[in-house]
């Protein structure tokens, strides 16, 4: 068994969409502060985290993109949704700011030698993180799904899909449409993944990415991991 970490590191002022809260991580206590109890000395270091529920590598809950009463928060989603069979499609040839078409997904599925099945998590490797992280392009210049290609995935009955970018569709109308495809077809997506190049050509594997149990959360940071039988 081999585990591959698919999560970005959270750190102070890490990149995020400008309409989301800034990531603030500060020192609350450090080992210079000593406590003495019954003659025994101890020190502990603690950080303060002030982050949004869509920080870093995260998953969207239905109530993020579905305004109807009863749309589930992250704390209401079954844990089984986050421990699934998975495949990774190689779309690293796609140019920045380009659309991912149905034909792109079909060709990547064929090249991977896999079949997307109902209940799968589908990870989309676009080599976007390696190309742009640490530059302004990381926020806006990603390739993205369209309404049509997201619908193609959703109609296969997948559990969710995941991208490296901050959004699943290109900025603007396309991104909103992709979110609403998730709403209408009953699946969701992850954003901010890394290391997907390590899964290209690996066939089927297990995906693990449990969210925090945030009451009413519209999403949650996750520790995304791929488990390979190696």
Which terms summarize this structure?
230 residues; alpha/beta; Glucose Oxidase, domain 1; 9-stranded mixed β-sheet; two-stranded antiparallel sheet; 6 helices; 26% strand
Structural class: alpha/beta
| Residue fraction in strands | 25-35%
The strands making up the biggest β-sheet line up spatially as: 1-15-13-7-9-11-12-6-14
Question: What is the end-to-end distance?
Answer: 5 Å
Assembly category: single chain
CATH superfamily, by name, is Putative cyclase
Number of domains: 1
Mean pLDDT: 97
Biggest sheet layout: 9 strands, mixed
Task: Give the overall shape.
Answer: globular
What's the alpha carbon Rg, rounded to whole Å? 19 Å
Parts with pLDDT < 50 across at least 5 consecutive residues: none
Q: Identify the CATH architecture.
A: 3-Layer(bba) Sandwich
Tally of DSSP helical segments: 6
Q: How much helix is in the residues? A: 10-25%
The run of helices and strands is EEEEEEHEEHEHHEHEHEEEE
Q: How many DSSP E strands? A: 15
CATH level 3 topology: Glucose Oxidase, domain 1
Q: Please identify the top-level CATH class.
A: Alpha Beta
Give an overview of the whole structure.
The structure is a single chain. The chain has one domain: Glucose Oxidase, domain 1, CATH 3.50.30. The strands form four sheets. It has a nine-stranded mixed β-sheet. A two-stranded antiparallel ribbon has the order 2-5. It is 20% helix and 26% strand. With 230 residues, it is α/β, with parallel strands linked by helices. Helix 5 runs parallel beside helix 6. The N and C termini lie close together (5 Å).
């Amino acid at each position: 068994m081999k585990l591959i970490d698919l999560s970005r590191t959270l750190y102070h002022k890490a990149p995020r969409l400008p309409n989301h809260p800034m990531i603030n991580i500060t020192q609350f206590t450090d080992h210079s502060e000593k406590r003495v109890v019954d003659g025994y000395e101890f020190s502990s270091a603690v950080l303060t985290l002030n982050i949004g529920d869509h920080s870093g590598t995260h998953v969207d809950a239905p109530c993020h993109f579905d305004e109807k009463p009863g749309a589930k928060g992250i704390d209401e989603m079954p844990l089984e949704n986050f421990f699934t069979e998975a495949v990774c499609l190689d779309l690293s040839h796609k140019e920045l700011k380009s659309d991912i078409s149905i034909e792109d997904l079909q060709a990547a599925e064929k090249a991977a030698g896999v079949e997307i099945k109902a209940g799968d998590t589908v990870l989309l490797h676009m080599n976007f993180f390696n190309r742009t992280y640490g530059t302004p392009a990381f926020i806006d210049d990603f390739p993205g799904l369209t309404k049509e290609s997201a619908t193609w995935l959703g109609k296969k009955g997948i559990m969710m899909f995941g991208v490296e970018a901050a959004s699943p569709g290109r900025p603007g109308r396309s991104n909103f449409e992709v979110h609403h495809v998730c709403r209408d077809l009953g699946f969701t997506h992850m954003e901010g993944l890394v290391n997907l190049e390590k899964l290209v050509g690996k066939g089927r594997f297990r995906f693990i990415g449990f969210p925090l149990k945030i009451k009413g959360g519209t999403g949650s940071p996750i520790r995304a991991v791929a488990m390979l039988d190696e």
